[in-house]
Specification:
about 280 residues, alpha+beta, SH3 type barrels, 3-stranded antiparallel beta sheet, 7 strands, about 15% strand, nucleus, Chromo_domain, Chromo domain-containing protein
Length: about 280
């Protein structure tokens, strides 16, 4: 409705809101406007037309009629809508349960978390492992990482994959990676210079990719190197362009030929001759 001009969204907001409130919902079989005001929304008609004006009540609704209408909504309409909504929810829940296997993950279960998007086919599908802390009332799970810190959000069962991990790995000490400074070695033997969070630069160590519990720090490192390389290429291209502009401006200056130099010498000789005659 804004024709790709998102700056005009506030101009169309009232009509969009009205259209949404006028639409009949599947659950309630009613429009939100009708349920709110206990009446139908006035249709978009030309009320100057006498045939349409005759359909309008001659008097306004009295206070008693409004009270009776509201009581009818609370006693009949709202209970019926509540009953219908509950049936629809139960049917939808049954269809979902029939198509999806519900797994109850016990506490301390090791799981991997599905990543929301993959930048390439080489990117991992899951990250982790994490440990289940508890199940919420809504059916999602609270997880913790290898440092026993809770993850920032809860996860639904469809995002989790149960895995088996080495029990000795649970007792390993983990440290947080602050940044990767450099790398060395070729593919298959590559190591990364790790800056550890909470430690100085002297404590940096070379680590293999297998030592990381997540590929996120490594991905960030290569992305940063790619951005720096692109910036360096852009800087070189700009320098080349500036040099070409300077050369073009220099070549555009008038060229003093040998013939012009000879003319200037003749003029200087004539001027000096005139000066001698005047002085004589």
């Amino acid at each position: 409705m804004v024709n790709s001009n998102s700056n005009d969204w506030d101009d169309v907001l009232p009509i969009v809101q009205l259209a949404s409130n006028y639409k009949i919902r599947h659950r309630s079989k009613s429009a939100p406007f009708s349920l709110m005001f206990a009446r139908r929304l006035n249709s978009f008609e030309d009320y100057d037309d006498q045939s349409i004006a005759d359909t309008i009540p001659n008097r306004p609704v009295t206070e008693q009629e409004l009270i009776e209408r509201t009581d009818r909504m609370y006693q009949i309409v709202f209970p019926a809508i509540r009953e219908r909504t509950q049936k629809i929810i139960e049917e939808a829940s049954k269809r979902f349960n029939d198509k999806n296997m519900i797994i109850d993950l016990p506490k301390d279960t090791a799981v991997m978390v599905r990543l929301p998007g993959r930048t390439s086919k080489l990117s991992p599908l899951y990250e982790g492992p994490y440990i289940v802390v508890r199940k919420t009332q809504g059916g999602s799970y609270v997880l913790k990482d290898e440092q026993n810190e809770l993850l920032h959000r809860e996860y639904v069962p469809s995002e989790l994959k149960v895995v088996s991990i080495d029990e000795t790995a649970i007792e390993d000490t983990y440290y947080e990676v602050e940044d990767i400074r450099d790398h060395r070695g070729g593919p298959g033997q590559r190591e990364y210079l790790v800056k550890w969070a909470g430690y100085g630069e002297r404590e940096n160590t070379w680590e293999k990719a297998s030592s990381f519990s997540s590929t996120v720090p490594i991905d960030k490192y290569w992305l940063k190197r790619k951005e720096l390389k692109e910036l360096e290429q852009a800087r070189k291209q700009k320098m080349i362009a500036n040099e070409k502009d300077y050369t073009k401006k220099t070549s555009a200056r008038p060229n003093v030929t040998e013939e012009n130099k000879n003319h200037k010498r003749k003029d200087m000789v004539q001027d000096s001759t005139v000066l001698r005659k005047i002085s004589a």
